[in-house]
Amino acid sequence: MSAALQREFPKTIEERIDEIEAARNELIAATIALDAAKAEARPAPDRWSVSEILYHLYMAETRVTERLAALLSAPERKERPNETELKAEWERIVKTVLNREPRITAPAPIQPARIPSLAQAIQSLKESREALLKVIRAHSEDDLASIGFPHPLPTVGMFSGLGWLSIAACHDSRHLEQISEIV
Predict the structure, then answer these.
(1) Cα(86)–Cα(91) distance, integer angstroms
(2) Which residue intervals of 32-152 are DSSP H helices?
(3) Which residues, including other chains, have CB under 8 Å from residue 72's CB and lie 6 or more apart?
(4) What is the model's pTM?
(5) Is 145 helix (H, G, I), strand (E, B) or coil?
(6) pLDDT tens-digit map of 34-80
(7) Angle between helices 13-31 and 161-182 (to 10 degrees)
(8) Which residues pair with 149 in a beta bridge?
(9) At the top level of CATH, which class does the domain 3-182 belong to?
(10) Contact criterion met (CB below 8 Å) for 93 and 172
(11) Are 2 and 149 in contact (CB under 8 A)?
């Protein structure tokens, strides 16, 4: 588990934001100074390069942001989960998303079709994070807790809007571990 996630259940929206920001900062710090050629080289024909991993994170975060924005702009809300339910959801996220065994194939819409430059991939990550934070900050914690949608991998399940913030943090940390094996 990355240093960014070695903490307890985030009880507030501010703590969720801290969680995603810490994970993203750790990811960018670990990759920004990489040699471009090394970052763009695939370690094996069936493995993504560092740049592709970063671009995958950008594509995934963009899709999550779009889905959150759409649900938050709609009037429908479900009953807000209580703190015990939110904590159980967070624990399930940490256990599931950070578990790299077995290897998971990303859904087609978030598989990079080309190898972007490292600089382009990092810039895309910064843009997707700004967009996510803009959506989050325009809504309340209750709003985020009262919406939800399923993970694209059916076996992973359904998560609240708050849960998706923790998924973003864990997804960054999951791939940071993968990157550390490459470089």
Answers:
(1) 9
(2) 36-40, 50-73, 83-97, 118-137, 141-145
(3) 135, 138, 139, 143, 144, 147, 161
(4) 0.94
(5) helix
(6) 999 999 999 999 999 999 999 999 999 999 999 999 999 999 999 99
(7) 20
(8) 159
(9) mainly alpha
(10) no
(11) no
